[in-house]
Specification:
This protein has 1 helix and 8 strands; from the N terminus they run ββββαββββ. It is mostly beta strands. The longest helix is centred in the middle third of the chain and has 7 residues, at 89-95. The two termini are 21 Å apart.
Length: 190
């Protein structure tokens, strides 16, 4: 492979949240915003959006040889981490794996899941719309869809005199089925 500076990427991604099982945008629509009926953009973020895939391998061993004869993938952790800068009630609810409650003409409410159903949190799906390499640096898009996730990190609201408030979130991706991959990536090519 020859060196190609057009393959270098830089730039922010948009983050969209939807319900687990939400209708996914077609791959051919990679350059269009996902349907607002199923996906909600979380708005501005601070510090980037990072998808991490951490594989764990377990090596084979044999008494008769000193070298490792092979290995197998035995687990994989997939996460998306970002800090949501728009501290809306909807984003707070998303960070706590819930939804906004009652709304009225001049108010909106939120209460966490509680009682006998407190442990039965709904899974979510995430779309990351970022940049992809292009043959002539013409701003192609890359869409990453994580199909079954749960926000698993601590949530803090820290109101201070000299710091911006943010909601730091880490969504863990989970197994979907033996015919549906946990994530899907589509790059715009034309």
């Amino acid at each position: 492979m020859t060196q190609n500076s057009a393959n270098l990427l830089m730039g922010a991604a948009q983050v969209y949240l939807g319900a687990f099982g939400a209708a996914e945008p077609l791959d051919s629509a990679v350059n269009a915003a996902p349907a607002a009926s199923a996906w909600t953009e979380v708005g501005l973020t601070d510090g980037g959006v990072m998808m991490t895939i951490t594989p764990k391998f377990t090596d084979f061993a044999a008494d008769q040889i000193v070298d490792i004869p092979g290995t197998r993938l035995t687990s994989r952790t997939i996460t998306v981490t970002t800090t949501m800068s728009e501290i809306t009630l909807a984003n707070l609810a998303n960070a706590l794996n819930s939804t906004v409650g009652a709304t009225g003409a001049n108010y909106a409410t939120f209460e966490p899941n509680y009682g006998q159903f407190a442990s039965q949190l709904p899974y979510a799906a995430i779309i990351l719309d970022g940049w992809a390499v292009s043959p002539a640096n013409v701003n192609f898009r890359r869409r990453i869809i994580l199909r079954k996730t749960m926000q698993t990190s601590k949530v803090e609201l820290n109101y201070t005199k000299d710091k911006q408030v943010g909601l730091s979130c880490t969504w863990q991706a989970y197994y979907v089925s033996n015919v549906i991959a946990p994530y899907h990536i589509a790059d715009q090519t034309a």
